[in-house]
Amino acid sequence: MKIYLKKKIIATLVLGIVLFIGSFLLILSIANKNKNYAVEETIDDILNTNDEHMNMFNNDENINVDFDRTNPINNKEDANIDNENVNYSNEIQYDEEAEERESELYLCNENLKMLKDKLNSTMRENTKKENLMENFAYKYLSTDIVFNNFVDIRNRAELHTMLWRKIYGDGPYTSATPDINDVILNPGSLTGDKKLLAILHKKLYPWLYEKFKSPSSLLRSFKGKGIVICTGSYHFRFARSTVDTLRNVIKTKLPIEIMYVGLSDLSEEHRKELESYENVFCTDVTQFFDNDIIFISGFAVKPFAALASRFEEVILIDADATYIHDPAEWFEDEEYKKTGALFFKDRTLYPGPHGGSEWIHEWMVEPSEYAKNSRFYNELSAHEIESSTVVINKSKRLLGMLLTCKFNEQKIRDRVVYQKVFGDKETYWMAFDMAKEPYSVIPHPIIYIGEINYGEDIEDKNQKQLCGHIGHTDRNGRIMFWNDHIIKDKHEPKYSNQLLRFEGWFYEDLENVEWTDTFHCANIKDDFPINEFTQEEKDIIKSILDRELEKKFVLNAGTSY
Ligand SMILES: *[C@@H]1O[C@H](CO)[C@@H](O)[C@H](O)[C@H]1NC(C)=O
Ligand SMILES: *[C@@H]1O[C@H](CO)[C@@H](O)[C@H](O)[C@H]1NC(C)=O
Ligand SMILES: *[C@@H]1O[C@H](CO)[C@@H](O)[C@H](O)[C@H]1NC(C)=O
């Protein structure tokens, strides 16, 4: 506490000196109107002029400067007074500092916002005040990210995008993008905007440069287009069936990369089985990034798998997503070509304020057009996007891809994100929005597909229902895929050995369709129109079902089909 105060006094003194020198230089520069310093040079001037003062509150001379807020923040974490349910009044000895830190963080965010606005404005005035602020920014950005402060994360992410685009352009980025490695390889020699970016980049993505030593080695590591499927031995039977359908029924030409989480996740036998298909590769996703920070598990494997994958353009699909047309068609989608990212809507469920909407309202400022009009943001649904398929062009949308992964880092996901939303599924659009990266969403609602029943699993035996799966059409309204495979209900033991009957489908319709409690069936009115499949669709579905009946990838016993 004493040292803390002492540091504060020194910092204030330094600020005073800097301000004094600042005003002196300002007068000089006004006197010398013609000499128009570039902003970056002036920042460096300030840094050099005040180097010895800087060092007074740096414990470390390199880029990881230890601003006097760093330790208290870490203490805050260690003392475990960071989660929402904490009763601060029980932590009396921390109270005062906690409040102080809160207000400091608030000030930091305000300053950062000003800095961001300044960098974004074309009128970049060269005043000392701004230089000081930039100077302050170096210090501030060097501090650790507090995992649950999404206002702070958002400010940093926006600034990161802004600086990245200013220095490296709007993309697409390649290993040949000039100076792309500077932020990682030569941080010590950087100045001005590049130095800011280097600090930010490293703080936001401390796990990124493990296998890849630089941005260009990451960008060099992927090329072409392909499908990525995450599976361990647990979902192996679905993955094999899906790979088989894609290769032998849909006959896609796309290569397929299977991503698993360490050798114990997917057995060697299962890997061999999958790799026996043409152009299928199995990859251990834990070999790429610092897994002590991200600790890949569960849903979080998906965005990291997309990032690590050997493909530049990735169609990330669930192991049990059943496609009836070639997924490669997503690459032809007009909006995907424009934006470099394509997502799909989830069901409309649970209207009204929800934890997730309250949370994003705290940090999502200036949302994109999509986000601003989304059901989630407007509290019309607690679900917005579902991630059984996600399409991303990584060289175009590198920044969105990286930030999506950040949302799925262990601490951030476990303590914040997955508490607010279900798994990884909402993190793509939220992170793209935060990174100010464009994305597109197929505008149609989700479809419901399956068999027509009466009163299944409910009391009213006359109630007409459609029982089955949710899926998606393309932009032209043509069915592309559905989730949860071709068995009737993988979650329900009595149905998990039966194939679903594919008798019809319809788009989500809130007026006329009502889910049953289990979401296995939807109740519909007798005259509610159910779309029939085209002959082509019927033929493809029959081929997929016949193959399952022959090979028994998933059905391990008899079937009612
Ligand atoms: C927090 O702790 C104080 C004192 O121990 C107690 O009076 C108060 O009710 C607690 N608040 C909550 C929300 O638990
Ligand atoms: C940058 O400025 C432009 C024009 O003033 C504005 O439309 C845009 O939203 C700003 N971007 C950010 C990230 O603040
Ligand atoms: C993905 O991005 C790369 C780099 O811009 C580009 O060459 C490629 O055409 C893009 N793919 C699509 C389908 O837009």
Question: Could you explain the architecture of this structure?
Answer:
- With 561 residues, the chain is α/β, with parallel strands linked by helices.
- The protein has 3 domains: 1-143, no CATH class; 216-441, Spore Coat Polysaccharide Biosynthesis Protein SpsA, Chain A (Alpha-Beta Complex); 447-530, no CATH class.
- Helix content is 43%, strand content 13%.
- It has 21 helices and 14 strands.
- It has helices at residues 2-31, 39-49, 51-56, 70-78, 92-120, 128-141, 150-168, 182-185, 192-204, 215-220, 236-249, 268-275, 291-294, 301-308, 334-339, 355-363, 369-372, 398-407, 410-420, 427-434, 535-551, and strands at residues 225-230, 256-260, 280-284, 313-317, 322-323, 341-345, 385-393, 440-441, 447-454, 464-473, 479-482, 504-507, 513-515, 521-524.
- The protein has a 7-stranded mixed beta sheet.
- Strand 1 (225-230), helix 11 and strand 2 (256-260) form a beta-alpha-beta unit.
- Helix 5 packs parallel to helix 7 and helix 18 (398-407) crosses helix 20 (427-434).
- The radius of gyration is 27 Å and the shape is globular.
- The N and C termini lie far apart (72 Å).
- Mean pLDDT is 82; it is low at 27-96 and 557-561.
- One 2-acetamido-2-deoxy-beta-D-glucopyranose binds at residues 120, 158, 162, 436.
- It is a single-pass type II membrane protein.
- It holds the Pfam family Mannosyl_trans3.
- GO terms for molecular function: alpha-1,3-mannosyltransferase activity.
- Its main location: membrane.
- InterPro entries: Alpha_mannosyltransferase, Nucleotide-diphossugar_trans.
